[in-house]
Amino acid sequence: MSRYLVTGGAGYVGGVVAAHLLEAGHRVTVLDDLSTGFREGVPDGAAFIEGRVQDAARWLDASYDGVLHFAAFSQVGESVANPEKYWVNNVGGTTALLAAMRGAGVRRLVFSSTAATYGEPLSTPVTEAAAAAPTSPYGASKLAVDHMITGECTAHGLAAASLRYFNVAGASGPYGERHDPESHLIPLVLQVALGTRGAVSVYGDDYPTPDGTCVRDYIHVADLAEAHLLALDRVVAGEHLICNLGNGNGFSVREVIETVRKVTGHPVPEIRAPRRAGDPAVLVASATTAHERLGWAPSRADLADIVADAWAFARSRRRGV
Q: Which of 4, 12, 138, 175 is catalytic?
């Protein structure tokens, strides 16, 4: 049994990963300032510290076997309007965390990175060899952290992995997506099915795709969590491993909407809207590196299953369960 610090573990992905760590028999401490996370998102059995990742040195000591780092702001639009917030928190916070780990002798790190580091890739499926050209301060801040981690591995022998997510969706039991404001497609469409949103906006229907709408790679959050646990066991001192995580298949905006209609049995009105700047027509991951290095493959790749889990979570929140 190992002991892990999960920064940002009151958020969506961090909370699910913390729950999976506990299920695997590990001891878990969640560090979260609750600026975007929720206290009820911290899984039962985890110790909880309400605090900032910038102050991790106050709590991190040699009794920890590793850190899983999710504490970051992640709204692309907000990062464009308020870039300094992202540099201070995402980059500054990680600088402090790496120093705390170095001081405590904690030498394993799994970092929550993002496909936003690639910007608008020239081809898909996207491999880790694709040019990193982020189009927002959010993506740039995550890429900056990846560079920092590489330096830490080279100079100080850190064993680290950066896992670059594509579109995370679904829920794992009582832990699911509850962003405020919400910007992700599946929970937005489910809000329409619940009756809390009047319609879903379709941003562009003239892309060079089969139905004219953007195609994205959706990965179940439980599959994502399993990749983090595998990464903890496979990181190597002095090496920074970067892996894309996705299903390797794409679903269009209209396919997602139609799947929600079928799963929920509710109508989902659509509103046609102009394209958004920076939206690639197709964005699908190659997870070959994750398969080869982590022994990982998604087991919940069916879109209807992903939507059904997210729907169950959305209804439980509506009932106050």
A: 138
